[in-house]
Amino acid sequence: SIIAGARGPPRPRRRAPAPPPPAVSRRTFVARAAYEAARKMMPKISDTERVALGCGTVGFDREIFSGKPSLENLLTTYAPLVTLTDEEKSFLANETEELCGLVDDFKVLEDKDFSDEVWRFMRRQGFFALKIPKEWGGKGFSTAATSAVLVKLGTASSDLASTVAVPNSLGPGELLVRYGTPEQQKYYLPLLADGTFIPCFGLTGIHSGSDATSLIGSYGVVEERDGEIGVKCTFDKRYITLAPVAGLVGIGFELQDPNNLLKGNGEEGFTVALLERSHDNLEMGPRHCPLHAAFMNGTVKGSDVWVPMDAILGGQERCGFGWHMFVECLAEGRGVSLPAMAVGLGKGAAPMVGAYARARKQFKVPIAEFGGVQEALALMASDGYIAMASTELMNAIVDNHEAPMVLSSIMKQNVTNRGRDIINHAMDVSGGAGISMGASNYLGSAYMSFPIAITVEGANIMTRSFQIIGQGLMRCHPHLLDVVEALQSDSGDAPSKFMAGVKNMASHGATNFGRSVVAGVKDAVSLKGGETGSMKPDAFVKLHEDRLQRLSANFAVAADLALLLGGRLKFEEMFMGRLADAIGAVFLGYGCLHHYARNHDKVDAGLQRVAEHALLRLEAEAFEALKHAADNVPKMPAGAHHVVGSVLRTAVAPLGDFGATTKAPTDALTKATADLLTTRDSDYVSTLLLPGVYTSGAYQKEVLGALSLCLEADAIERACKRARKHPTADEQKILEAAAAARDRIVQVQAFEKLGHAERAPGHVRPALAQTDAWLADEPAAREAAAA
């Protein structure tokens, strides 16, 4: 007051202005509103889906979703793993070669079983224990070595490869190594390693189909008997490979614990039990007949089967843990074993068909010179290269202790499809030689059985149209999982985390859109591509990595835009299938580059020819898939799908259809690629394909050995025709030898008696018996008719 009086009458005190609400408050309000709106649109993630999201690993697949994958990272991380030890090489050259020689594929197909000698050799030589560690008596081989064994076996007999594949991929052996209790490992693994027990895995129920983990009809209830808890199980399994001869089966079932007997030690849910064939109430033995293939496949059934808790894989604490076991181990079966079948066709069948096309003449010309045949052979060569290169990369990824679910799905769907294309083209070129079964038919068995690889472990239709993108978006997108976790959370900071994730996603999308447009314009004006092995290796690699990075950025934009569909995306399977085609082609393209970068100095220019043919096709596949996705964005409210389609179309093709990415292989490149299989102009076949393939069979030796002879004879004929002269005596000998070889090669087997009925004593073909009888009765019939 003194101060006030000295200064005059007091002025009305001004109220201090209230501080403006901090900007963060407004942002928080907006974030909360956006968070709540998005949360209403977001379907709740089930416990099963949440477990699945936590299974497996991500790696290079996330790089593709990021829009900028790196070949350098691939080479640094995985190139050192693409190799075999001396022990593995010896097993491939000796035991595997010997096993191939023991099998008569046509006899196996007729008998629907292997001989006692073959079964004994497989079991005692460790073919069912390639992945079991040495400490338990197994081979302890790498994934690369296991794949190489399957490839070689497949070139002798597809049934042989199928039989060996199952115990070394999805089976009790690998599950025991990873998850078994010490007691289970000590008892079972030595018996699996020495072949005493043949294993199988009972997963698929009669209503499961490709949704194998639905476990419909397979359930178990925790009960207590005589003071001990266990599980009373009922199950009805089918399509179980090796079940008819297995001594140990892993059974997947849905565990229920209504009385809480587990008491927190283990959970309800997908559980795996280990049962020996002699287990009470377990029914094994009946066989299916999968396309008349000979490998063992059948049913596993049980009603009220009592399973002690120590028979649960991993013990009681692993109850409900089956999802983790199944998903992580499935990566090897889908990503390694099944693609190995396609690699076998690319490495084994393709060179054989090429040599056959050189030997086989039509209109006095080797069919290898026909343009239509060259197209088929070139596709076989480049699809074979794609399968071989990507499988080598996938093997290295698995040997790096990764379990990439998305990449394994791509491998399963895409590479097995290419394997089917290879065998289809092989049959088209071979004609009657491919159709007529017998000891010299090296295609028929694989042709009949390859649809099995398309169907098993997730049908390719489902894998392409749902699984690859459904899993990939959630697991591999660099920011989506953060957003989803925020939406599923009830914590106070969830809205801010949600908005941070959305901001990161927007930045991610804008960056990839800009990169797409710039790279698209640059690529469109490029005149490179379509050469026939004429580029320097470094320039070749850079050209195609630039294109694949552009396509990866395109794909990343498409994936971001697809998220605008929200929960509806899972029902738009045609749209997801096109995105799966795109990411599949990009990954396989990087597999080809990874292989070429490691091997271009070991092979002549033929390697670049086939790599160029393969990469041009893959780049065009990805481009077309993304373009079709842009043209077919599913309908959205207020016509937003038109805007989304336009944005994606601009990112994919900023200058329209004009651009190098759309270039198909030229006819000159196609012919040059086919020549790799039908001439000796390159060492590509002898250096990269035939090593690791079974070529010791009589017919294989005949066909492959005749190639050089037929080429020499063809050259003589052309020279004589140009010079208008007759061949010399020495030239005539070569021509005659080639003609004799050609005659032997085109022969097919004919049987006096074919089938079980004809082989029965005294059997007469009904049609012949009828003809004889009717001819004997004909005079009387004519007289009766005349009367």
The count of strands amounts to 9
Helix content: 55-70%
Total DSSP helices: 31
Anisotropy-based shape: globular
Major pleated sheet: 7 strands, mixed
Structural class: alpha+beta
Alpha-carbon distance between the termini? 152 Å
**Low-confidence stretches at least 5 residues in length (pLDDT < 50)?**
1-15, 18-25
Summarize the structure.
This protein has 787 residues and is an alpha+beta fold. The protein has helices at 2-6, 23-41, 47-53, 60-66, 71-78, 86-93, 95-102, 105-111, 116-124, 143-154, 158-165, 172-179, 182-193, 322-359, 371-399, 405-430, 432-435, 444-455, 460-476, 480-488, 494-524, 537-562, 573-599, 606-631, 640-652, 667-678, 684-689, 698-723, 729-745, 756-759, 766-786; strands at residues 199-202, 219-225, 228-241, 248-256, 269-276, 282-287, 297-308, 361-362, 365-366. Helix 10 packs across helix 14 and helix 23 (573-599) packs antiparallel against helix 24 (606-631).
